[in-house]
Design a protein that fits this description.
This protein is an alpha+beta fold and about 200 residues long. The protein folds into 2 domains: about 100 residues, no CATH class; about 90 residues, no CATH class. The chain has 5 helices and 12 strands. Strands 1, 2, 3, 4, 5 and 6 form a 6-stranded antiparallel sheet that branches. Strands 10-7-9-8-11-12 form a 6-stranded mixed sheet.
Length: about 200
């Protein structure tokens, strides 16, 4: 028998690592699922092609539910996975479900933080804490106006466009959510982290 080339990804692990940007249906939504509903799962596979993603997200139609264990039939035709085809039987658990065809009764926290912001590479790539943040007038309807820095970036660093990224606020929160209580503040505010690690409001630098 040919060895299976794919496996299902545990979506709960992803949601724990990226709580502000990765949607995982609530337990209430999953409890509403019945035979005939569609759910989306992540099918991982190995590839040596650097231009090919190592996973396919595909829909499965539920045929049976038994104590949190699901059976269903694949409702998509895989693009890269050769030992899977439309209609194949798939067995999975609650932890594998990343989307459903029903409305989630629980609002997603992700929807609150889709507006964009500017953040320095020190935070996004180097993993440093946010040390200084301020909110300016938004550039457009997708911009929150928030700007996040480590606090000690030089003028030369800030002039280099490669050191700044325009991303969702949720992406920044995945790195450092200590700023969460401040995000509802108005345009024009500035905050700096003090020696105790607390944010204090300051005049504009």
């Amino acid at each position: 028998m040919q060895e299976q080339t794919w496996k299902l990804r545990d979506a709960e692990v992803i949601a724990e690592a990226f709580p502000y940007t990765f949607y995982k249906p609530s337990h209430k939504a999953i409890a509403l699922l019945q035979a005939g509903n569609l759910v989306k799962l992540i099918f991982e596979f190995s590839t040596s092609d650097a231009n090919t993603r190592s996973a396919e997200r595909m829909w499965v139609k539920i045929t049976d539910i038994n104590n949190g264990k699901f059976s269903g039939c694949l409702d998509n035709m895989p693009v890269h996975i050769k030992d899977l085809t439309l209609g194949d039987k798939i067995e999975f658990s609650t932890c594998h479900i990343i989307d459903t065809d029903i409305k989630d009764p629980v609002p997603s926290i992700i929807d609150k933080y889709t507006l964009h912001c500017i953040v320095t590479d020190n935070i996004l790539s180097e993993g440093r804490q946010i040390g200084y943040l301020y909110r300016e007038t938004s550039k457009d309807s997708e911009d929150s106006g928030w700007r996040f820095t480590a606090g000690d970036e030089t003028e030369d660093y800030m002039r280099n466009s490669e050191n700044a990224h325009y991303v969702s606020i949720g992406t920044v929160l995945n790195k450092d959510d200590s700023i969460l209580p401040l995000l509802e503040r108005e345009t024009g505010v500035n905050f700096e982290r003090d020696k105790q690690g607390l944010f204090v409001e300051v005049k504009e630098r």
